[in-house]
Amino acid sequence: MTPRALAAILGARLRAERRTILYACAAALVLGFAQPRGAAGLIFLCSLFGIVMALAQDPGRYPHLDRCEQSAPLFGRELARAKALVPCVAAVLAICGYSAARLLAGAGDAGVTLVAATAAVVATTLVALSATIRTGPSRALYVVLAGSAGACAYFLAIVVGSIPGELAFCALVSFLALRQYGEALARYDPV
Amino acid sequence: MPNATAAMALLRMRNAVFSAGGVEAGPVTLDLGAGEQTALVLRSAREAGIVALLAAGIVKATSGSVLINEYDPRVQSVHCKRIAAFVPYEPLPLSSSDFARYIAYRAALWNVEPIYAQTVASVLLRKLGDVHEAFAYPLVGALIARPRLVVLDRPPPVYASQILAVVGKRALFSTHAGAAAARAFSRSAAAISAAGSR
């Protein structure tokens, strides 16, 4: 996949969801002013937004984008990577909104919290992506799994206080989730 | 009607069936050579849509086989999609101000030179004349990647002659839910061929 194709998919899908992203960034900004310390609100709000954005990649929500991507000469795993990047970028933008508010509120540097939150949100979002090409109980199961991944990441980073442990957990979960999504997308018949 | 050019057909379907979750399409058997045109009438709109997706290599046959220039979409779908361009039935909800962005998007996905894509797209759009933009844009978008086979899912028969004119000498496979629509395409193809031989 060329970087141009990746940028085109990312740009088109972010543009299609621009209003949702704007509202999420605004919500994160408000949260940043209301609760500039602590990571619970940030991780749970942005994870929730990541799940919503992942579910927005559902086939059928933007049929013309789906058809173009399905008929383009791209491998399933390439398309999976491009589509996975969309909710991740959107969720990271919300985290940036929160960080901006936090800085403006004078809460000082919170690099560690932001790194922990970003890892948790990306893992949650990637697990939720697999729900988009499933229906019924398996779809609900993936959403629950995504929520559980976010909760585990929070537990490791904040309750246990092990940021390296949280990062390792999130890296493993993200890798497996992305691989699973790519395989499922390659076998998926859009009928 | 399916024709019988078995040697190196651009599209070869042998008892191709799609079946999943109560949805069934086929069996379809046909050979379509380079530059040939086939308008296939199916039992329902749903089946016509699925057969078009099968012929474009987007959906894989559950049983039987589909070969696009001897490539099997089940294992070489990327090769198939470089050869076959799919034009969906659903009209594209874009305005004229979105056209350039849409062409740039498609050019990026098919790795086509952006300036070439925009130039070809504007020429094709002009050729399509009075065809409604919701139907013209997907067709133009499909043609910028220089496909050898164009697959149309239930194209509007009212635009048959304009569509055939821009598709030109490429192989064309269209699916239809009614015989009248297929006849419109066959008649227009015959008229264009007769005009060309004069």
Mean pLDDT of chain B: 86
Would you tell me the structural class of the helices and strands of chain B?
A: alpha/beta
Q: What's the quaternary structure here?
A: heterodimer
Average pLDDT of chain A works out at 89
Radius of gyration of chain B in whole Å, from Cα? Answer: 16 Å
Q: What is the count of helical runs of chain B?
A: 7
Overall 3D form of chain A = globular
Give the biggest beta sheet of chain B. 4 strands, parallel
How many strand segments of chain B? 7
Question: How would you characterize the overall build of this protein?
Answer:
The complex is a heterodimer of chains A (191) and B (198). Chain A has 191 residues and is mainly α. Helix content of chain A is 80%, strand content 0%. The model of chain A has no long low-confidence stretch (mean pLDDT 89). Residues 1-5 of chain B have low confidence and may be disordered. Helices cover 41% and strands 23% of the residues of chain B. Chain B has 198 residues and is an alpha/beta fold. Chain B contains seven helices and seven strands, in the order βββαβαβαααβαβα.
Quick overview of this protein structure:
Chain A has helices at residues 3-16, 18-34, 40-55, 63-71, 76-104, 111-129, 136-159, 163-187. With 191 residues, chain A is an all-alpha fold. Chain B has helices spanning 45-55, 77-83, 99-109, 114-128, 133-143, 160-167, 179-197, and strands at 11-20, 23-32, 37-41, 63-68, 84-87, 149-153, 171-176.
Supply the key terms:
heterodimer, A: 191 residues, mainly alpha, 80% helix, globular, B: 198 residues, alpha/beta, four-stranded parallel beta sheet, three-stranded antiparallel beta sheet, 7 helices, 7 strands, disordered N terminus
Write the layout of secondary structure elements.
The complex is a heterodimer of chains A (191) and B (198).
Chain A: H1 3-16, H2 18-34, H3 40-55, H4 63-71, H5 76-104, H6 111-129, H7 136-159, H8 163-187
Helix pairs in contact in A: 1-5, 2-3, 2-5, 3-5, 3-6, 3-7, 5-6, 5-8, 6-7, 6-8, 7-8
Chain B: E1 11-20, E2 23-32, E3 37-41, H1 45-55, E4 63-68, H2 77-83, E5 84-87, H3 99-109, H4 114-128, H5 133-143, E6 149-153, H6 160-167, E7 171-176, H7 179-197
Parallel strand pairs in B: 3-7, 5-6, 6-7
Antiparallel strand pairs in B: 1-2, 1-4
Helix pairs in contact in B: 3-4, 3-5, 4-5, 6-7
